[in-house]
Design goal:
Distance between the termini: 26 Å
Helix content: 25-40%
Largest sheet: 6 strands, mixed
Structural class: alpha/beta
Strand content: 25-35%
Mean pLDDT: 90
Bound molecules: adenosine-5'-triphosphate, magnesium ion
CATH topology of the largest domain: Rossmann fold
Number of strands: 10
CATH class of the largest domain: Alpha Beta
Number of domains: 2
CATH superfamily of the largest domain: P-loop containing nucleotide triphosphate hydrolases
Oligomer: single chain
Number of helices: 8
CATH architecture of the largest domain: 3-Layer(aba) Sandwich
Low-confidence stretches: none
Radius of gyration: 19 Å
């Protein structure tokens, strides 16, 4: 379980996390949300985080984003400590946070505007990203005219315009219906390949994690910690057919067993 580090000789580690802990205090009580997380994130990988509600997935991603301070340990991106949000990390969360009064393109270029880029240049870049996420032709639409899946594509385009090194995604497809979710998964893989980004993706759905990830970080609650890291061998090139393969079901079962063993402990403890 301690061996959460990748082989540095074979892989280019971009983010190094050591002994990362987070304690909240609530109503005078202390809550250990994360305990001694050790993790190396490798350039270009698709890393999924799964685990029961309350195991600290969002807290972890928020620390990576630089929005929440850690209590102990270290987290470095290319050798520099993460202390605040920055353009090297883009994020997409469950609820799309588009401005309803802005058009699709005006929403997509927001990060560039904030970075001080001129409108023409920002529009050109935003257009390119809207094309990448499959929203060509919708540039002048308003969020209310889009489906949930399309709104999440705008969010994704916005996150990509700033050309982040790593994309942080917290249950981005959770609010979508099953069919749209599957379509978005396939699209995200295509975008990940084309854009060449590193992705850290939180999900409740084990099959989603196994379908998307190179590695699945399985977390356990109270205190939030890494239980196991499962490497997903991709025999095929992640086609939809892969979901029917034996390897796919074996990986899903393995992860489910780990998570359910904690549910059983909880039931027995109560
Ligand atoms: N700002 C905060 N103040 C106090 N406690 C917090 C705060 N944020 C999170 N927590 C607690 O930390 C723990 C981890 O929360 P977190 O939201 O990271 O879990 P999660 O794994 O993302 O859960 P879910 O799957 O439901 O989204 C929970 O017990 C939560 O109540
Ligand atoms: Mg969460």
């Amino acid at each position: 379980m301690k061996n959460n580090k990748m082989n540095v000789l074979d892989n280019n580690v971009m983010m190094e996390i050591r002994g990362l802990s987070k304690e909240f205090s609530r109503n005078g009580e202390r809550l250990q949300a994360l305990l001694e997380i050790d993790l190396d994130v490798v350039e270009g990988e698709f890393l999924c985080l799964v685990g029961p509600s309350g195991c600290g997935k969002t807290t972890f991603l928020r620390i990576v984003q630089g929005l929440i301070e850690k209590s102990a340990g270290s987290i470095e991106l290319y050798g520099k400590p993460i202390t605040q949000p920055s353009a090297d990390r883009g994020f997409v969360f469950q609820q799309d946070n588009l401005y309803p009064w802005r058009t699709v393109i005006a929403n997509a270029r927001l990060g560039l505007e904030l970075a001080g880029m001129g409108t023409d240049q920002a529009n050109a870049r935003a257009n390119e990203m809207l094309k990448l996420v499959g929203l060509e032709g919708f540039e002048q639409s308003y969020p209310r005219e889009l489906s949930g899946g399309m709104r999440q594509r705008v969010n994704l385009a916005r996150a990509l315009t700033i050309d982040p090194k790593v994309l942080l995604m917290d249950e981005p497809f959770a609010a979508l219906d099953a069919i749209t979710r599957e379509a978005m998964q396939t699209e995200l893989l295509r975008i990940w390949r084309e854009a060449g980004k590193t992705v850290m993706f939180v999900t409740h759905q084990i099959d989603e994690a196994v379908y998307l990830a190179n590695r699945v970080v399985v977390m356990a609650p109270r205190p939030g910690r890494i239980e196991k890291i499962v490497t997903i061998t991709k025999t095929t090139d992640r086609s939809e057919d892969a979901k029917r393969s034996q390897e796919f079901h074996q990986a899903v079962d393995e992860i489910r067993d780990i998570i359910e063993s904690h549910d059983r402990e909880d039931i027995m403890a109560n």
